[in-house]
Design a protein that fits this description.
The chain has 269 residues and is of the alpha/beta class. The protein contains eight helices and eight strands, in the order βββαααβαββαββααα. It binds zinc ion (ZN).
């Protein structure tokens, strides 16, 4: 055992903190317990309730409103702790092998849930045209690397050339094969030797030209929408953390319960 503050192993038992064993670090002279330095520190709610909440949130896409009832805490308590969990998740590190499908999806993510609701209703059901960060419909890029089988979901401020270049920058080989749709922001990739861009034009009824398509991105995008739907209040500045949780969720898919939970908690340490 090491001290969470100074990493020294000169620790001794030192009474208790609530139901937890407390320890004293003889190096920095401070006490700690099992929760110190974790996302569960200073919570009065029993740890197993939090573990249950995180598990249900990731595995079953349970809304925070429902979790609040399940573990019998206030709205503020559940929001604070789940968001503390999602904030602790690291950004995915891209290491593209290719061919890579890239596409964007535009999700509704306003500053305040209510304002956004009113606005989108007045616009009716029409969602034509691409959204923007300013209009509370930020672009979320979806990358599907066929070389590694990895999927990445990354929100952005704009769907423009520089964002796209940044997303495709982390690659293994000099040249990367990229499949896109006919969106203009992908066009500059064609003049660049670092990319071999091929695209499908959806408007022409041409959906999949053998290898060249973005169907993987599209089906992944519908999963992203489903993931976000119980959390309608997600604002655009919290979108990144919710999408990292989505990414983590995918890593848990085939893992049995206990293993899945351990993986999820480890991701925050
Ligand atoms: Zn210490």
């Amino acid at each position: 055992m090491t001290c969470p503050r100074c990493r020294s192993d000169r620790t001794v038992r030192n009474g208790s903190y609530r139901e937890y064993q407390r320890y004293l670090c003889k190096n920095c002279d401070r006490t700690f317990n099992d929760k110190t330095g974790t996302i569960f520190a200073h919570s009065k709610v029993a740890l197993r309730r939090w573990l249950f909440s995180i598990y249900a949130f990731l595995r079953f896409n349970t809304s925070l409103r429902q979790l609040q009832c399940e573990i019998n805490v206030t709205h503020k308590t559940i929001h604070r702790r789940i968001e503390c969990f999602t904030r602790a998740l690291d950004a995915p590190s891209l290491d593209l092998v290719g061919p890579v499908e890239i596409d964007e999806v535009y999700v509704s993510a306003g500053k305040k849930g209510r304002e956004r609701d009113r606005q989108s209703r007045s616009r009716g059901l029409s969602t034509r045209g691409r959204g923007s960060y300013e209009s509370d419909k930020p672009p979320v890029f979806i990358l599907a690397d066929r070389g590694t089988g990895q999927r990445y979901v990354i929100p952005a401020k704009a769907a423009d050339e520089s964002t796209i270049r940044l997303l495709l920058a982390e690659r293994k080989e000099e040249s990367l094969t990229v499949y896109t749709d006919g969106f203009r922001a992908y066009e500059p990739l064609e003049e660049d030797d670092a990319f071999d861009r091929e695209y499908v034009v959806h408007g022409d009824g041409e959906y999949a030209d053998e290898e060249v398509h973005v169907n993987t991105c599209e089906s992944h995008a519908s999963q992203v929408r489903r993931w976000l739907s119980p959390h309608r209040g997600v604002s655009k500045d919290k979108l990144t953390q919710y999408l990292r949780a989505f990414q983590l969720r995918r890593e848990l898919y085939r893992k049995p319960g206990r293993k899945a939970l351990r993986h999820a908690i480890k991701a925050t340490l």
